[in-house]
Write the structure tokens for this entry.
Amino acid sequence: MNKSIKSKFSVIHLLIALAIFTQSRGQVAPGGVSTDLALWLRADAGVNCNTDDCDVTSWVNQEGTTSWDASGTGATKWKNNSTDLINFNPSLSFTDDVQPLQATNISRTNGTSSTMFITGEVSSIADQCFIEIGRTTSSRAFFIDQRYSDNTNFSTNITIDSPQVWSLTDIGGTGTTTVYETTAPIMSYSNKLFNSSWTSGATYTIGDDITGDNRLTGLLSEVIYYDTNLSAANRARIDSYLAIKYGISINDGSGADYVSTSGFNYWDHISNSGYNHDVFGIGRDDNTALNQKISKSENANTFLTIAIDNDFTSPNTSTTRTSIFNNDLSYLMLGNNNGNLTVSPTALTSIHPNFYRINRIWKAQDTGGVPCVNFQFDTSSLSATATQNWYVVVASDANFTSNLDYKKIDIGANAVVNLDLRDNESSFITLARINTNDITNASSPNGVVGIQTANPKNYSYLDVRGGDKGFVVSRLNQTTINGLSPVAGMLLFNTSTSTFQLYNGTNWRDLNDPSTMRLPRFCN
């Protein structure tokens, strides 16, 4: 075979490989759902300016169809400050302005059914329009804070003063439409007043409608429009993308599955039953342009923020955030049991009989590919006397008896620990307190035993100063070890195998065998 033929075959093979890869991951789109996507506006991409409070004169459609790009009057402002960020992501601020963003003469293929998603926050319900799309009075699909293509208000009011995902599915014409707030239905129209079908020559307006009388005051971070009535499965992927990005807990309390663009659940509400409160997380999913490096629940009093950089103030898109996720489709999710932050009467007896945790427990699910993560606990509501110590405690079970790790923290402000949780496993996290006066030992009045020292180190039970001598533990052969009735934590040297062994409550583990060792979760 000559070189030119070989070259042609190489090019063909490369094109086939690229086609297979593209087909397997698909076009970048909300939740990875690209079919019939017409409009995707994001405050973190496609805005003409990138300094806080700058004037927005254009908002580029991330779907790629340029005729759907929005032009602005400059009245809308791009916000990137701590007050107007939504889960550390920028927003656009609308302040009662007439038709501040529009695109004209747009068209779509199907022309009847549609699906919309709006992510934002309002402080009041005042007949304010998020988006209107259609052809003047002949077809008006207006999505207002209390009604859709009709003069009848929603049966349930939307939530104010808290970021939400508002969405709807519309079969077109004057037919059935269901409106949702973060996946919960708040209204169903069986026969709308206005026709929502159109194919060409249309206009969309963001932050107002065609009358100029429904001006929005509030924040918007994302606007998505599909030229079809999406399936429940596809809506779930988009809701999941928006929820993790903007710190919005889906069906808070009862929970919902969070679904990746490839279709796997990175948070399963059934297996995490009891921990579906304030669900939030960080993650990377290339097929939906998700790269959320810092996150907290946008619910009130959530107490915990996580970030892969030790930076809890900068926006998610800041160039100072240099840490990266190791792999695509990497997620770390957390939810809690809705417990309060007061100290419970439940002692973590596996550590100490007087080691008491708070009522709140977080459950974490790590899919793998997530590096060491910084956990920041707002401990301003906690208190401690001079004789009390606080700890972050992590275990493999909710009773905190298996694979325990714990680390002392200072309370009163923000306490930060760095954790590398188990890939593809669940971890349970809480805070616990112990009174050092409860740590007693007959040989020492302050509860600390010192050997060869009159001043043993604080925060230890035993301080051995051997000088130029070593410390020898019990040395037993295998026959003697087999006859023991061991307790968890027993340590000895096996003279038959020349190894240190530790009894974990079930079996003996060789401390010099990496395959039997469990690395600590605390990176620092």
In short: The radius of gyration is 29 Å. The longest helix spans residues 3-25. Residues 33-230 form a domain with the Jelly Rolls fold (CATH 2.60.120.200).
